Amino acid sequence: MNPIAQAELVALLKPECFLHRSRSDDAFFVTDAPRRLAQTQLAALAKDLMLRGYLPRLTPSGLWQIDLADKRFRSIADEIKPACSLALPQEDVRMDAYALAQLLYRHPAPWETQPKEPLRALLKRYDHPAEFAACARLQLESCAALLRRHLPLPSAAATVLHAWLNELYKEGLT
Questions:
Q1: Is residue 63 domain-shared with residue 102, that is, in the same domain?
Q2: Residue 83 has what pLDDT?
Q3: Residues in the chain with pLDDT < 50?
């Protein structure tokens, strides 16, 4: 269950446009729509995307990075409600995700002050367990550095981690 509805974006784009997960963590997706569509089609698509809570941003290479508007981003983070308590994973590879969730639960921060890149990075990798676990490991290190500098943590990511670990537990993968 990936909380980011990629199918919705695919349906909005023309068949000749690609849509991929962005390699950088400053956006969720990337598309070549600006290269493939006429300006009138592109303007209509941009308006439709923004009405649905997406933010298209033109890159220097002529692609669009597509991110979520803050309201939609926050609603996704708020809608993720883990069904049960956080279970200790049996596999060592999942321990970083567990440790990060515990750390983030203990250091809540207001949404407005939280760095969004760590949450975006985790959400983008939600359906890819090995990538998600590796990302959690990196985010754990990053959050430790933020704590040392007395900066806010991406505490909204705690429920994402929690839900991901619970899904793996239910599937017998942790």
A1: no
A2: 63
A3: 1
Q: Please give the Cα distance from 27 to 12 (Å, whole number).
A: 18
Greatest Cα-to-Cα distance within the chain, rounded to the nearest angstrom: 54
pLDDT of residue 138: 95
Contact 47, 55 (CB under 8 A): no
What does the pLDDT read at residue 172? 63
Q: Write down the pLDDT at residue 3.
A: 62
Number of domains the chain is built from: 2
Say how far apart CA 173 and CA 23 lie, in whole Å.
Answer: 26
**Residue 77 pLDDT:** 79
* 102: containing domain: 83-170
- Return d(Cα 111, Cα 94) in angstroms, integer: 26
Q: Is residue 75 a part of any domain in this protein?
A: no
Q: What are the tokens at 148?
A: 């040392």
> Does 101 share its domain with 166?
yes
Provide the H-helix boundaries in the chain: 6-12, 33-36, 39-51, 70-79, 95-106, 117-124, 129-148, 157-170
Give me 97's structure tokens. 């995700």
Give Rg (Cα) of the chain: 17
